[in-house]
Amino acid sequence: MAKKQSTGSNVNTSKFVQFSESLGTAYSSYLKNVKSNNQLLLIDSFLAFLVVLGITQFLFVVLIRDNFPFNAFLSGFIMCVGQFVLLVSLRLQLISPFPGISKQRAFGEFIIASLLLHFIGIHFVN
Amino acid sequence: MLRRMRAALALFVMLFAAVNALSGDSVNTLVIYDQRVTDLENYTKFFKSLKESSYDKSSNQREYRVQFAAVNNGDAELLQLYRNDDKLYDNLIIFPLKTRQISKEISTAKLLEFYKDGGDILAVTSPEGLVEPVRLFLNELGIYPSPKNAVLKNFNEDGPSSKHQISIANSVNKYVYDGTEELNLEYDGSSALLDNGEYIVEILRAPRESVCKNTNSKEEDWSVGSQGHLIAGFQSLTNARTTWVGSSSFFDDEHYSANGAFIEELTKWAFSEKSVIRSVGATHNHASGASYEEIPYKIKDEVVYEIGLSIWDGKKWAPFSADDVQFELRLVDPYYRLTLSPGRVTEDTQYYTTGTFKLPDHHGMFTFLTEYKRSGLSFVTESDTRAIRHLANDEYPRSYEITNSWVYLTAIGSVIISFILFVVFFIASSKNIPVDSVKKQQ
């Protein structure tokens, strides 16, 4: 790494290297965080799965060029987005709990909100 | 209920009118003439044909009564079309009149009223006999006969001769004369200019080499070439017909051998004895056979529409065949305009059907309409306005019936399942942590 930096005559290259370096630092610190906490790993893999699912549905609509059961698409897509948002807020509370709200209570709220989301989603898809 | 009653009433009135017009006991005709211009002795063949050919003695009991009334001859009490607001005659024939008025009773307004009430009028004028009320009446309809003393001539003939041999090719309406027989008509009289109104029926055009003008004055030519018309008709929306002929000698015995066949067809048309069609009614229902009353229409339903048409062949109603009857489904604009195809035939009716078609994906008050209006034929209009409802909320297909949505359903299912797994794992893993932390605290 250091060698590359010294040989790089181009300013752009040095910026790129800086960027990838910082990225690497962020990634390693993230890995360290996650390793110490299995719950965060669990949440993050679920988040990644939701992103893939949402993108898949969107690509499907784009590829068949028809959004015919639009309510079904909306409900499938919003389900992914909603679950993603709820999970992220759970993750935030696990890392730094809000004052006056315990982690257990945050988890309980997450479950209730998720069940509500599923209920609405299933009804909307008809 | 009210609508049904109204429909029944309309049907009754229509039936009554049809019976009145075609199979009543007698058809009363009034002939108005001027003794100074017209000698009835010269028209025996015409009146004979009028009485005889108009009905068939063997099959029809109808009586054709002709009443003659001369102006300026003390026939004043005969010269009226109404008595106590009752129409006295079915048909009116007016021969050329030299007088200023027809009579006190018969004015332009009275002629129009008679015509509006369904009376058929045959107006015969000639260069020397065109009475003002008749001229004004014709002008109202859009027929403009040439003024007094203007005569149809051949443009390269200087002499006073104005007799014309007219080929039947100049006859332009096949519903008035179908042109099966080659005729050379003899015509001596005036011409008329026509409005371009929709209800005008062109019958006989002036020859191309003719010109209509007054030789004694320096007025402009009234009509030149086939711009002018020698015989013209008008059919109102009530199917009453007015026919104008610009020559009285056209009808007389001297020319009857040449003109007779054409005159017979012309008078039949003028007095609604031919080219009269009627609708026996239009029906529409679900393709399954269920009526609107049983199952009201909703969008995208399969529907069949049918209308029956008959034509009066002089003795009885016969099936009417045509290939240009169209049906419209309208909500302000037509959503469908379908050419009807011939379906079943009964003794007196040809039925036309749309076949099954799908109602549009649009709810509202739609009109099922057939408007068959052809120049020369009587007009047929059948319209029925019905509601087409939208789908109720339980009539849409369920999402799992639509294959596209299986993708989204799978996504939802996997979100829910993975949520449950997540919760299980989360609780399982969190059970360790509190224990650890408790241990640490200890």
From TrEMBL, chain A:
Pathway: Protein modification; protein glycosylation
UniProt keyword terms in alphabetical order: Endoplasmic reticulum, Membrane, Transmembrane, Transmembrane helix
Subcellular localization: Endoplasmic reticulum membrane
Listed InterPro entries: DAD/Ost2
Record carries keyword Nuclease: no
Sections of the chain in a coiled coil: none
Organism lineage string: Eukaryota, Fungi, Dikarya, Ascomycota, Saccharomycotina
Protein name as it appears in the record: Dolichyl-diphosphooligosaccharide--protein glycosyltransferase subunit OST2
Subunit note: Component of the oligosaccharyltransferase (OST) complex.
TM stretches of this protein: 40-64, 70-94, 106-125
Membrane topology: Multi-pass membrane protein
Keyword Membrane attached: yes
GO cellular component terms, A-Z: oligosaccharyltransferase complex
UniProt record similarity statement: Belongs to the DAD/OST2 family.
Reported function: Subunit of the oligosaccharyl transferase (OST) complex that catalyzes the initial transfer of a defined glycan (Glc(3)Man(9)GlcNAc(2) in eukaryotes) from the lipid carrier dolichol-pyrophosphate to an asparagine residue within an Asn-X-Ser/Thr consensus motif in nascent polypeptide chains, the first step in protein N-glycosylation. N-glycosylation occurs cotranslationally and the complex associates with the Sec61 complex at the channel-forming translocon complex that mediates protein translocation across the endoplasmic reticulum (ER). All subunits are required for a maximal enzyme activity.
Recorded superkingdom: Eukaryota
Signal peptide: none
Biological process according to GO: protein N-linked glycosylation
Organism: Kluyveromyces dobzhanskii CBS 2104
From TrEMBL, chain B:
GO cellular component labels: oligosaccharyltransferase complex
Record's subcellular location: Endoplasmic reticulum membrane; Membrane
Biological process, per Gene Ontology: protein N-linked glycosylation via asparagine
Keyword Signal set for record: yes
Keywords: Endoplasmic reticulum, Membrane, Signal, Transmembrane, Transmembrane helix
Record membrane topology: Single-pass type I membrane protein
Transmembrane segments: 406-428
Residue span(s) of domain OST48 middle: 287-429
Pfam family membership, one: OST48_MD
Sequence ranges assigned to domain OST48 N-terminal in this UniProt record: 28-270
Secretion signal span: 1-21
Main location: endoplasmic reticulum
Pathway assigned in UniProt: Protein modification; protein glycosylation
Alphabetical list of InterPro entries matching this protein: DDOST_48_kDa_subunit, OST48_MD, OST48_N
Keyword Transit peptide assigned: no
Subunit relationships: Component of the oligosaccharyltransferase (OST) complex.
Role, per record: Subunit of the oligosaccharyl transferase (OST) complex that catalyzes the initial transfer of a defined glycan (Glc(3)Man(9)GlcNAc(2) in eukaryotes) from the lipid carrier dolichol-pyrophosphate to an asparagine residue within an Asn-X-Ser/Thr consensus motif in nascent polypeptide chains, the first step in protein N-glycosylation. N-glycosylation occurs cotranslationally and the complex associates with the Sec61 complex at the channel-forming translocon complex that mediates protein translocation across the endoplasmic reticulum (ER).
Record family assignment: Belongs to the DDOST 48 kDa subunit family.
Name recorded for this polypeptide: Dolichyl-diphosphooligosaccharide--protein glycosyltransferase subunit WBP1
